[in-house]
Design a protein that fits this description.
The chain is an all-alpha fold. It has two domains: about 60 residues, Flagellar transcriptional activator fold (Orthogonal Bundle), CATH 1.10.4000.10; about 40 residues. The protein is about 65% helix and about 0% strand.
């Protein structure tokens, strides 16, 4: 994979993330904040982005979203091969919800 390919993949990821985030926030702000792991201040900024601003942000060479499973237990629950995955995913959601949300500094 070339550098240009990586850049294009990151741009597509960013654009998809921002568009999904806006849709979720506009449909149900509180649930979107929980699912995205963001605070009310960031939700407000994302909601108010114009299409041009979304495209400009998406063009960044760094990923705008980040993984929330940054501990071994949460990662293990999400990748569980147990018969009852629903329970593991519910437990993972509970653990993720206890993590602090992103805030604008």
């Amino acid at each position: 994979m070339t550098t240009a390919d990586v850049y294009n993949e990151i741009k597509e990821l960013n654009l998809s993330y921002l568009m999904l985030a806006q849709q979720l926030i506009r449909a149900d702000r509180e649930t979107a904040q929980y699912r995205l792991g963001i605070g009310a201040d960031i939700a407000e900024v994302i909601d108010n982005l114009t299409p041009g601003q979304v495209l400009k942000m998406a063009g960044s060479n760094m990923a705008l979203c980040r993984f929330r499973f940054d501990d071994k237990l949460l990662l293990g629950l999400l990748t569980s091969h147990e018969r009852d995955r629903g329970t593991s995913h519910t437990h993972a959601a509970i653990l993720a919800s206890a993590k602090p949300v992103e805030a604008i500094a």
